[in-house]
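Cross-posting from the chemistry board since nobody answered there.

I work mostly on the small-molecule side, so proteins are not my area. We synthesized coenzyme A and want a rough idea of how it might sit in this target. Sequence and SMILES are below. Is it possible to get a predicted 3D structure of the two together?
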Amino acid sequence: MLENHPKFKLFLHRLIIHPYASRPRLWARIFVIPFGIKRGKGSIIRRSARLDLIPSKKLVLGNRSIIEDYALLNNQMGDIIIGDNSYINTRGKIVGPVIIGNNVIMGGDSQITGLTHNYKDVTRPINQQGVTPTLTVIEDDVWIGGNSCIIQGIRIGTHSLIAAGSVVTKSVPPYTVVGGNPAKVIRRYDFDLKEWVKP
Ligand SMILES: CC(C)(COP(=O)(O)OP(=O)(O)OC[C@H]1O[C@@H](n2cnc3c(N)ncnc32)[C@H](O)[C@@H]1OP(=O)(O)O)[C@@H](O)C(=O)NCCC(=O)NCCS
């Protein structure tokens, strides 16, 4: 409905968020943002986690999932959906649109982003060119090592592992270990041999 009234939408947006900052205003952080989060049973969001959320987009946190201290979640360009028993460690950063499955471990200081800044027009500053959101998906049962970066539009297959400090620029198949910058396959599970093999 608000899509048909862009000026009113902008007015509401400005009420909640300062024109050139991504952090919601204090009153919105207290009285609006917490009530828009869909929380599963036993889920925990530590008090010092930073939630740069807007009410028109979703943050869904499944049962027993945890957002640790100093993590940053931003859903301003797309929903963030996190399944059950998933763990976002200290200083993890998630910028929507991002879907994270069940039983995912995200190591500290890692980043999963669902958007990129447009930069192609050389006559304008990059910060005036807007962003392009592209969904990033982390399937169930993935371990993301500390200090990793997963860029927009990536899918990480189930039971895969991102080695510490990796920059993941391409989707990762299920049952695969990748590492490095750009991340390459280190190991994959061979279902015939029933063991993890080098590529
Ligand atoms: C990937 C990891 C689990 C090791 O897995 P492994 O199957 O035992 O792999 P190995 O140690 O046998 O290494 C296999 C190859 O991957 C390389 N490798 C291992 N870790 C790597 C990394 N982080 N980045 C790049 N390459 C890596 C090794 O050098 C080795 O290369 P080689 O075949 O050329 O010798 C481990 O290195 C890692 O990154 N752990 C994450 C730790 C972490 O982030 N903890 C936070 C807690 S949430």
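Reply from a structural biologist on the board:
Welcome over. Reading the output above for you: The longest strand covers residues 184-190. Helices lie at 6-16, 26-31, 33-36. Happy to explain the token format if needed.
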